[in-house]
Fold:
Amino acid sequence: MADGPNHQTQPWPGPSSRQPLDLHSTTRSPGEQQCDFAGPFSPGKRGRKNPNQPPILAMASRGGGARRTRPNVLVTGTPGTGKTTTCSLLADAVDLRHINIGDLVREKSLHDGWDEELECHIINEDLVCDELEDMMGEGGILVDYHGCDFFPERWFDLVVVLQTDNSILHDRLTSRGYMGAKLTNNIECEIFQMLLEEARESYKEEIVMPLRSDNVEDISRNVGTLTEWINNWRPSRS
Structure:
């Protein structure tokens, strides 16, 4: 995505009670628990598909922003794919600062009020980006969010898209109380791989890493893969 001030607002869920960490149920933060995809993803993003790009782990040595001495990583995916669990474990393993956007929006009031119909806050993307700008420039940040297209492209060295089998995702979401359109929208989002498409249209394909996240074994393996990538990352010389 190109940098610029013309961000828009989008719904973000309201508060709910935090539950204890449980890898088998991919416990989520209160922000992720009531997450909606209230509308279509932004059209017109530029794709950058190149079959000759090197494997993702090889990209670790090439680095990102010139100022950073530690990489910035975005972990995205449909609600219920295990973003917050993965980020919590990864942050401990590699000493990155974990920023859950839902928590940040509530703690800093980075929203434009409450949407009664969707029962969620309307996230103000300008305020979120302003809040994150300085820390993202320093590096070492692990961002956890269910979307990715409004962040400045220059912020991230790696964009991880977690994916979960539809039947597993259905069970996870219904256990959270999702029903009706909320449930259908999120399942369809996963079926049509909308988050992966959004990531590939918003960032260079060479930094987008899709990972399967069906169970605790997948989560453990993903944390290992990402730990290796982060430990091999080197700042860009450009």
Q: What stands out?
A: The first helix runs from residue 30 to 33. The two ends are 20 Å apart (CA to CA). The chain has one domain: 9-16+23-40+58-232.
